[in-house]
Structure of MarR family transcriptional regulator:
Amino acid sequence: MTRWLDDTEQRAWRGYLDMNAELTARLHRRLQADSGLSLADFDVLVKLTDQPQPRLRAGELAEALQWEKSRLSHHLARMQKRGLVARQDCPDDGRGAFVVLTDQGRAAIDQAAPAHVETVRDLVFDQLTTEEVAALTSITDRVRARLDATA
């Protein structure tokens, strides 16, 4: 038997979906206008800069981004043409390759990050109280834990 969403749950769910779509679109437009990077470019660069050495195996990067390998491959090819990332052979695995942050990629994210974080602060966190940020953190942690448990 289907457990339909009640009116409150449906309002929350649809509100979340609409907010996520609009926020993602707005972040993408602002990032593109401010830095020439797409939100996808920025996501790749963030994942690389979060590493002790700014590189990841392509498969690990695809998993971290929740992207299909073909999508990642096409996107990395475009980023590589722009000099933001490079591919490096993996000495342990002849079939594997690392995606490596280039100096140009580092400069691009260093230039883009301040305006991007200011946009996130303006559109999200400046609207929330400390308690609401804590609630948002709790919600995202619980939903992500459920997603991990049912993967």
The first helix runs from residue 7 to 35. The domain at 38-115 is CATH 1.10.10.10 (Arc Repressor Mutant, subunit A). Strands lie at 55-57, 85-90, 93-101.
